[in-house]
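During the reporting period the student researcher (J.K.) took over the structure-prediction task from the postdoctoral fellow and processed the backlog of single-chain submissions. One of the processed entries is reproduced below for the supervisory committee.
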Amino acid sequence: MADDLKPAREGTHAVFNQTPPRVNIDLFQLDPLLDLECSGFPDGVREDLSRVGRFWGSEEAREFARLANKEAPVLERFDPQGRRINQVAFHPAYHAVMRRSVASGLHCSVWERGGEEEPVRHRARAARLYMTAQTECGHICPMTMTNAALASLRHSPDLLTEWGPRLLSRTYDRSFRKPSDKQGITIGMGMTEKQGGTDVRQNRTQAEATNQGFYRLTGHKWFMSAPMSDAFLVLAQTEKGLSCFLMPRILPDGSENAIRLERLKDKLGNRSNASSEAEFEGAHAWLVGEEGKGVRTIIEMVTYTRLDCATASTGLMRAGLAEAVHHCRHRHVMGSELIDKPLMQRVLCDLTLDLAASVALTFRLAEAFDMQSARPEEAAYARLITPVAKYWICKSAQPFLAETMECLGGNGYVEESVMPRLVREAPVNAIWEGSGNVMALDVLRVLERDSDCLPTVLESLREDLGPNGRAAVEVLAAAADVSREDEGSARMLTEQLALTAAAAALRRDFPPVFADAFIESRLGRPWRATYGMLDRRFNMKALLDYAFPEP
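J.K. obtained the following structure tokens:
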């Protein structure tokens, strides 16, 4: 028995050849692709981005993310006295990341005015969102919805005047009080219903006008995300048709609105963020925009959300590939480091091309958002490329992250790794605010409604692509002609637009090797189903070392 209690011989259980954690890094300073996209930013903006990068690259932030997703939110239906309540309890880690993102303006910075960030607001916010998504995506949902809701509230100046100052506040206030008593507020959304889903015109929630300047809504929402927000943008039917409303959680007199949370969704990913099913029983709400024009009122909001979906997916891709490269640099296999194996180099390099293309396209689109009010050609780019980028980047992220997980082998498949959370998170951005078919159909709608949009964008792509641009845009013009007659080909047009726009952005913003390799492998060859198909004329190691410098 005594022998059984003796410690094992020294060295018997020694752990070696395991990858150290990738923590306490600056996600801004160690990302040359992001640095290039932000190269012209004022020094103060770049310093702030570095502060954001240091936090989201810290061990503390990663632990917050782990806890917020492990300890999922819980719906509390009753208080200790048995009274029905509608509150969701979150782990303190969730509130910690919310506090950090609100402080950095992730929910509102594009609507602020003045200061050195003025000319690059969308690009600077995209940089913050991209880094945030690399560590914790769930809380991005209320950040995105609040940011996008401000676009819709502009259709009702009185509401914007009343709610705007607290929406622009950089103080996170999670208290359960009426908005006028709070230091800062957030807005959620409730659009879809059981019978409709994407087709919001099938919504059956009814809105009845009162003689007191507000409406009473009765019905339900199948998905109402971030249910502890201070108000929600919802769609409901009036006598004039589908309309948009702002529905507060707490009424101006301090009483709770007639919103009943039925249950929380048990989701594949995005687990730190609560998504609920809700019933309205004569809930108080104010009309936003023109009655009967609800879709028109929310369409700009949807556009902002789609940009965020593409940006967050790009951040997920960066996070996954950074983990894969880090692992391969520290894992010794069959006589050498894993990253020195030719097959692994080609897989990682091939993945890097898609990441670089997604970064370039995301920031090119954000630049169009920054410039669209002053330049019609940029407005055309934003209008057409938003659904294109959302389609391609969000779809690409899913197989991309599966491949990065495979680079880690079994270590990437267990929950102690960050990889399972990245893989589970990826599908939501391809679904949220319009799945792939919806994006492809939106591309066709843009072409139908604005005959000048496609030629304007194609000319921009031709200029950025250089000598080979003419052939590429001719292919796109022909594909657009086919799609006008054959709706079923819309995905082919959308993907070809995405690849060409990404190549043009790569050619414009990054060293030539990125565009050369991307064009040769994505536009110059038949469609490929897996990664690792580059030929050896490209310097794989040099490209990887450029995109992923060692700390």
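The committee noted the following: Residues 172-293 form a domain with the Butyryl-CoA Dehydrogenase, subunit A; domain 2 fold (CATH 2.40.110.20).
J.K. will present the remaining backlog at the next meeting.
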